[in-house]
Amino acid sequence: MGSNNTRIRGVALELLFVDGPMTVDALRDALQRAGGIRVVPSQQKITALLTRTLQVEAVGSTKVQTHNGWEYQTLYDLNRRVIQNLDDVELTTPYSHLPPTLKEKTGRCVECKLIRLIPDGYETCLFCQRL
């Protein structure tokens, strides 16, 4: 299941970068249209995946009509203060989610002490540089 979560996380981050903030329902529909994922997870699993991903943050809520009335749903988006282009997604990925080839290129950030991919010529991670 871990590789499926990694694949879903990657596609979801790209969709959020391109399409902007969206609810879990909208993201689930976009994942189904995007392809490459055999089984699109339930709303609860997508919510759990997004809340555990450091690159994603809740940016507000929107009122949505459901089959039994209206409800407020959380809007999720990338942390736009840190992720300014699609290449920044790789630099902000936590060590545990990196493929083995990229784990070899990581280093420890001098400020936050986390192991991350650090841009060439810097000693701090992208989070510490931009926040």
In DSSP terms (H or I, runs of 4 or more residues), the helix count works out at 6
* Global shape: globular
User: Can you tell me the residue ranges where pLDDT is under 50 for at least 5 consecutive residues?
Assistant: none
Strand count: 4
Mean pLDDT: 93
Q: Helix-strand pattern, N to C?
A: HHHEEHHEEH
Could you tell me how far the N terminus lies from the C terminus, measured between alpha carbons in angstroms? Answer: 33 Å
**What would you call the structural class?**
alpha+beta
Q: What share of the residues does DSSP label as strand, in percent?
A: 15-25%
Largest pleated sheet: 2 strands, antiparallel
**Rg (CA only):** 16 Å
The strand order across the widest sheet is 1-2
Helical content band: 40-55%
Report a brief summary of the structure.
By secondary structure, the chain is α+β, with helices and mostly antiparallel strands. Helices cover 40% and strands 19% of the residues.
Write structural notes for this entry.
- The protein is of the alpha+beta class and 131 residues long.
- Helix content is 40%, strand content 19%.
- The chain contains six helices and four strands; from the N terminus they run αααββααββα.
- The protein has helices at residues 2-19, 24-34, 43-52, 87-91, 100-103, 126-130, and strands at residues 56-66, 69-78, 107-108, 115-116.
- Strands 1-2 form a two-stranded antiparallel sheet. A two-stranded antiparallel ribbon has the order 3-4.
- α1 crosses α2 (24-34).
- The longest helix has 18 residues, at 2-19.
- It is globular, with a radius of gyration of 16 Å.
- The termini are far apart.
- The mean pLDDT is 93.
